[in-house]
């Protein structure tokens, strides 16, 4: 619970309304109650603002005249709402200490302020930093380092030789440091290339549920500071992802691809191996990136949804594009 006065001070906002009014949660602009905070970032939804029953609304200066309730005037309402959400966190706070059902190797070094949940396994020579949390049934492999204030949710598997920077969050059912897909054909089958690298993950990274990050074949797979990965992403061996890049769910990044900083990669996009994507590139959902991108900008390759009949006609015509191009070139030569 916070008064609007206290909230305005924390967010650096201008308060229009009663400073003593208390808010105790968050809501949408359509459904928020008089004790909840909401926001308006897109002026197209101004009609919702005019009818809201929220306790207060984060809005830009341009919407001040349309707000019927208390307003917190900010430059970027969505960013301010994200910051405010931390004050109303509802996730249970873990207890400090090691649960009696956890299995901890005698050589592991665990900070006194860390929390290790039931049935968690911490193997030899692991370091767990101050305030770090390892929840139930998670495994941390030998020699790994869990930075200060990291949070590892239940059923996460972190293999040996993995480093997590401070304040990194790993959600449930992730696998960090599994073997990369490295095999050499021997004429009769496949010979495994043993993956001797590790995984290095920077500070303030968040990795969504069910995502896999493979260990490097020789050098480490590297995820930079501030990277956010959605659920069910595949990051193959020796991939490098630059600082503050965001990748949406179901994307797949093949081995040794290098992605720059501040990139945005849409859901189900595929990035081929051994290519480079420069900084500040946006890749639209379901696109296939098969060659390097050397200039910042927005790129896409997937077809948008269409009616079935039109889509089928277009697919049939795509098959004729090469023949059509040849005919056009022939006509151009005849006209010269």
Protein architecture, described:
It is a single chain. The chain has 336 residues and is α/β, with parallel strands linked by helices. The chain folds into three domains: 2-88, MurE/MurF, N-terminal domain (Udp-n-acetylmuramoylalanyl-d-glutamate--2,6- Diaminopimelate Ligase, Chain: A, domain 1, 3-Layer(aba) Sandwich); 97-299, UDP N-Acetylglucosamine Acyltransferase, domain 1, CATH 2.160.10.10; 308-336. The chain is built from five helices and 39 strands. The strands form six sheets. An eleven-stranded parallel β-sheet has the order 8-11-14-17-20-25-28-31-34-37-39, with no helix packed on it. The model has no long low-confidence stretch (mean pLDDT 97).
Secondary-structure blueprint:
Layout: E1 2-3, H1 4-11, E2 14-16, E3 22-23, E4 25-26, E5 36-39, H2 46-51, E6 56-59, E7 70-73, H3 77-85, E8 97-98, E9 103-104, E10 109-110, E11 115-116, E12 121-122, E13 127-128, E14 133-134, E15 139-140, E16 145-146, E17 151-152, E18 157-158, E19 162-164, E20 169-170, E21 175-178, E22 183-185, E23 190-192, E24 199-201, E25 206-207, E26 212-214, E27 221-223, E28 228-229, E29 234-235, E30 240-241, E31 246-247, E32 252-253, E33 258-259, E34 264-265, E35 270-271, E36 276-277, E37 281-283, E38 288-289, E39 297-299, H4 308-318, H5 321-335
Parallel strand pairs: 4-5, 5-6, 6-7, 8-11, 9-12, 10-13, 11-14, 12-15, 13-16, 14-17, 15-18, 16-19, 17-20, 18-21, 19-24, 20-25, 21-26, 24-27, 25-28, 26-29, 27-30, 28-31, 29-32, 30-33, 31-34, 32-35, 33-36, 34-37, 35-38, 37-39
Antiparallel strand pairs: 1-3, 2-7, 22-23
